Amino acid sequence: MSCHFEEDLTAYVDGELPAARRVEVEAHLGGCTGCRATEALLRHTVARVAELPDFVPSVNTRRAVLAKLDALPVPWWERLRTLLRPGVLVPSAGLAVAVGLALVVVGPGPEAPEELEDPAVMELAANLELVEDYELLGLDSPEDLEVVASLHELEVAQ
Amino acid sequence: MLKVAAGDRRAFAWLFDRYHASVARFAFRFVGDRERAEELTQDIFVKLYRNAKAYQPTARFKTFLFRVATNHCLNEVRRGEYRVAHTSSEAPDGEETGGVEMAGPDGDRPDQALAGRELERAVGDALRSMSDRERAAFTMCRFEGMAYRDIAEALEASESAVKSLIHRATLAVARRIEELQAGTVPARSRG
User: Are residues A52 and B20, on separate chains, in Cβ contact within 8 Å?
Assistant: First the structure.
């Protein structure tokens, strides 16, 4: 195995030599018994290795890999990118605007308009509420109206 | 792979289904142990997912994958976390040999099964006796059918260097098979 062609024999068997070198090796093999024996040995070895059974990984490998991916920490830029996606951003922004409008229109916050601090306005609002109670109950006799008007006093007394 | 880099999990699942058997086969031949091979396979795919942005579309995906796989296996073996075991040379006759099953109709015949185990053991011994780079090059060539050029890219070596690695490795396996056929395999290795 000391022939200087020997180093190329595996590549020759594997079909990995450039065409010119392959022709040289083939010409050499015709006259070198040692290299012919090595070539036969290499071919036999390659064929025997190909007989080895395949390694089949466990079916759990896929599940384990996906679980490891789930456990990976999400970088802040990925989270930001997720939030900025149109599918998330547009509904979120729309909801925020709707809530803002609702607060402005319906709910008097701690900084209520000045007119609501006026006692006369507040009394008018209370009377309007009483009238709504009358309409709801469908009352028309003066006694019934008086009972309804005194309901708040009864609640306080209890 | 570009979709994986953009965080597409379905694209990653597709790549996994397509290539995980190759990676597991490589890892198994590299460390010689089923359980460790599966752990390495999992780690390699997690690493692939995390480093997907490093992929250059100019490189063939399988070459890129095997570069990741080779580096990971080499690093793990060098760190000493994984000893190259080759259970085929450690398990007594008739016992589980790292999950490799003899396939095909002849594999069920006792004489064929025994011959298969002997061959597995001889190749396992040869793989264990090689350098890490010889083992990696041999495994990619013989079990994955990769071209020398692609192996060179995966190992970040020249084609000429890969040719030498594969030649030396194949001769090492050839000697073990010759010993097996001549009945001169050491008693320790024959179980």
Answer: no
